[in-house]
Amino acid sequence: MRYLFLIFTSVFFMQNTNAQIYEIGVFAGGSNFIGDVGATNYISPNQLAVGGIFKWNRSPRHSYRLSVIFSDLEGVDGKSDDPRRIQRGYKFNTSILEISAGMEFTFWDFDLHTSGVKGTPYLYTGISVANHDNYYFTQNGQYTSEDTSSWAYGIPMVLGYKTNISNHLVLAGEIGVRYTFSDELDGSVPDNEFREQFSFGNTNSNDWYVFSGITLTYTFGRRPCYCNF
After folding, report:
1. What is the mean predicted confidence (pLDDT) over 144-148?
2. pLDDT at 16 over 80
3. Which of 135-141's residues contact partners 24+ apart within 8 Å by CB, and which partners?
4. Where's the DUF6089 domain (predicted)?
5. Separation CA 126–CA 156 (nearest Å)
6. What is the Cα–Cα distance from 181 to 77, expressed in whole angstroms?
């Protein structure tokens, strides 16, 4: 985060033009997990999530986007509405580092080179990959490390709303669901095959997690000619 702040401030003071084709900034919010352990509420942030974001605005209607977000994912059976999970009493907490890249689409034109305050809803999707440590639950329910880590690939599905709050600052609020191609984030499927007997839960349903929060970005760069896009 210190290096991200230095990059942000350097760009802020170096840029003195009105051109705004790039955006760089920060994300802050919360995360929640949806899987075989804990509650299954879709939007219920319970852990801090922070990161950085970069955008390349290719037109007033779409942007290429890259983000890096760090958070913990937590699941507690005692907070579930399912009596079976409450009785089981499992809980886990694991850290993830997610890298996501894709395209952001706005519902209306969002041309930062026109005067006045403007805002628009937007959608973002692409591909994500999250690094996490591997765990499993023993027969007595103890959450145990496997001393390995894995990458969980996924598809981000984000809905948000953004508005400019100054000539160079854009504020946005968003909710982003990540469907992963992994069932290992909560320890319900051990990474090592020789621990397969410790698997539990719905093996036909992969893990999900959600990031809810705000982004604040600073715009800079050369003045684009959107007529070519």
Report:
1. 96
2. no
3. 135/92, 135/94, 135/187, 136/187, 136/190, 136/191, 136/195, 136/198, 137/90, 137/187, 137/188, 137/198, 137/200, 138/198, 139/198, 141/88, 141/89, 141/90
4. 4-228
5. 6
6. 23
Q: Could you tell me the two tokens for 229?
A: 């896009």
- Note the pLDDT of residue 6: 43
Residue 83 CB contacts under 8 Å (≥ 6 apart), including other chains: none
CA angle 144, 145, 150 (to 5 degrees): 135
Domain boundaries along the sequence of the chain: 2-228
Question: Which helix H or strand E contains 127, and what residues bound it?
Answer: strand 119-137
The CATH-assigned architecture of domain 2-228 is Beta Barrel (2.40)
Residues 68, 79: contact at Cβ < 8 Å?
no
Decide: 58 and 229 in contact? Cβ < 8 Å: yes
Distance of CA 178 to the CA centre of its chain: 7
